[in-house]
Amino acid sequence: MTDTVVVIYSGGMDSFTLLHRARARGLKVHALSFNYGQRHVRELDVARSVCVDLDIPHKVIDIRAMNEVMSGSALTSGDAIPEGHYEEENMKATVVPNRNMILLSLATGYAVTVNAGAVWYGAHGGDHAIYPDCRPEFVEKMDAVCRIANYEPVGIEAPFMHMSKGDILAEGLKLKLDYAHTWTCYNGREEACGLCGSCVERLEAFAENGLADPLAYEAGRWCTGSRKRFIPCRVRVPRRGAQRCSVASVNAICGQAGKKTAQRQCVISVIRIL
């Protein structure tokens, strides 16, 4: 079995962690990124920079022409990016039709070219709710097909399939990774929005690990209760770390009221504002 792997590397925190996991296990890594017509290239710029620093072979493949037959996603159109948690119904607007099947197929061809035994991608437990091409059954079927699609079998692996975003971050922290070298936000502005599903999930992960995200955010305050779900607040405030808040302040900031809010024992986490 070859010790070479192709890692689909977007520049986000999941694939960033996956890239370093492969290196930590002594594998020879070829990083592969795709410009599929997403709203911005912040992640791709980050990916290039990281691969240069690590001296990892890296290719960025332009497949924007495929948008003619893969339309309908807020990530590749001028439609507004929905705000909220990934489990909310409106987040389905961020699904790019058949994206991972296409990316994995191209990555499999590249794997054959560089004599890699597997393609890794960063699908994880938090993706399952809305992304059909991040579910275990999809990975199982793609793996079976890619093992017989060429003379050289190539496995499709999603090492984080049964892990949460918080679990992935915890693994990266054990590897002493600096997540300032990642980009997650669906919006490509100077600072992360703090409101889209991608930002919400990322901020939840940092909260679960008791850390502040090193990225700067436009939305300064977040409240999290016993269910560890974030409610964005659009009020910008100076950075003050985290503080316990009263029911009254939660009501004022989150717009929630009464007994339900009191039971949440919310914490206001002030995200780094540069």
- H/I helix tally: 8
End-to-end distance: 48 Å
Biggest sheet, spatial arrangement of strands: 3-2-1-4-5
Which CATH class of the largest domain is shown? Alpha Beta
The proportion of residues forming helix, as a percent range, comes to 25-40%
**H/E topology pattern:** EHEHEHEHEHHEEEHHE
Strand content: 5-15%
- The low-pLDDT segments are 221-274
> How many β strands by DSSP?
9
Instruction: State the CATH superfamily name of the largest domain.
Output: HUPs
Shape: globular
Our Rg estimate from Cα atoms comes to: 19 Å
What would you say this structure looks like, in words?
With 274 residues, the protein is an alpha/beta fold. It is 32% helix and 14% strand. It has a five-stranded parallel sheet with strand order 3-2-1-4-5, with helices on both faces. Strands 7-6-9-8 form a four-stranded antiparallel sheet, with helices on both faces. Helix 5 packs across helix 6. The termini are far apart. The C terminus is likely disordered.
TL;DR of this structure?
The chain is α/β, with parallel strands linked by helices and 274 residues long. It has helices at residues 13-24, 42-54, 99-113, 136-146, 165-174, 197-208, 247-254, 258-264; strands at 4-8, 28-35, 58-62, 118-120, 155-157, 221-224, 230-233, 242-244, 267-270.
Summary keywords:
single chain, 274 residues, alpha/beta, Rossmann fold, five-stranded parallel beta sheet, 8 helices, 14% strand
Write the layout of secondary structure elements.
Layout: E1 4-8, H1 13-24, E2 28-35, H2 42-54, E3 58-62, H3 99-113, E4 118-120, H4 136-146, E5 155-157, H5 165-174, H6 197-208, E6 221-224, E7 230-233, E8 242-244, H7 247-254, H8 258-264, E9 267-270
Parallel strand pairs: 1-2, 1-4, 2-3, 4-5
Antiparallel strand pairs: 6-7, 6-9, 8-9
